[in-house]
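$ run holo --ligand "heme C" --emit tokens
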Amino acid sequence: MSRTLALCFVFVGFAAGCGDKGGDANAAAEAEKVWQERCVTCHGPDGGGNGPGAAALAVKPRSFKDPTWQASTDNDRIKKVMVEGGAAVGLNEAMAPNPDLKDKVAVQDELVKKIRRLAQ
Ligand code: HEC
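-- output --
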């Protein structure tokens, strides 16, 4: 594997792809920022559901690493939960809405990709 290609793989998680594969690097960067600043508190850096904020919650966030959950949900539902909050799909309201992401579809897409990647 060439060095460039290897670097490309390293940045895939951040820039949503390399070369002409497309992807919106700005959206990916913003999604990463949102994840780190808002989601990690409860969901944990690796999506295991064990962030420091989760300890105080009556209903704990599930682990995004669970392949059964990954297979059972779809991207639209993940987006709905993060924009409209858990209550919008019958989940716990501790999962707060993020209305500022409503019109940022590219950022939503990148967050979904991020959550999907946590499964691996
Ligand atoms: C205050 C803690 C908290 C924060 C911050 C938080 N979540 Fe959650 N989240 C939860 C809890 C608790 C649940 C589970 C609710 C349930 O199962 O009833 C959840 C559920 C979810 C689900 C649905 C999982 C399922 O069971 O289908 C998604 C997707 C999700 N969160 C994404 C995010 C994203 C993306 C962010 C950042 C923008 C975020 N969450 C921030 C607490 C949080």
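-- notes --
The domain at 24-117 is CATH 1.10.760 (Cytochrome Bc1 Complex; Chain D, domain 2).
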